[in-house]
């Protein structure tokens, strides 16, 4: 199935959906993921509903803070060891204004076939700058796709390029964060007077459902300029948390929602 068809960049598409679908039908699995078989529910290493568990979690959080970890590291730690997801976390889009000149498509969700008896899905989010920002860009930019329900990620890919041949297409799989709620990438910007290496691009997340689930998907482009950047990000069910290096010279464009039901 296909959900929420939308515009494509006028320049050549970063990669065909067919190629990604073929890749997804391989039995590849990311490090730490179970190959084949069904997706297991999160099993906490530390029980958060006991005195001992709470004390262990507080100790880990304190150690993370002492080591210089921010909110993204704490969220990631609690998700990994105790299956905890922030509830009611503030949405960045409510406090950070949207970026002028960039459009982000609502994610398109495709059904792409079965592997070991389980359906695989592709969530494709695209962005395009209509105008090149005039200000210097010395800090990281970020792109993300997230779901309000948990899925099992299988493969994530980022493509980005300039609008001209000055910045050829780059393909990466090294996400800043990937988990059951989605994926996010950080990008070091490069630019000249007329173009930049993040002028357009796409992210793809191939995933399996943990059960027949109605989910809402959204995408975002986080833009920084001058000396502001992004040190880390954390993808959750309520959105993406960013560790901005400064509270100024930043913007966040969030796509509209895509609502779709996915099944194993």
From TrEMBL:
Could you tell me the superkingdom of the organism this chain comes from?
Answer: Bacteria
What keywords were assigned to this record? Signal
Keyword Signal annotated: yes
Q: Where is the signal peptide?
A: 1-34
Q: What is this protein called?
A: Uncharacterized protein
- Look up and give the organism this protein is from: Streptomyces sedi
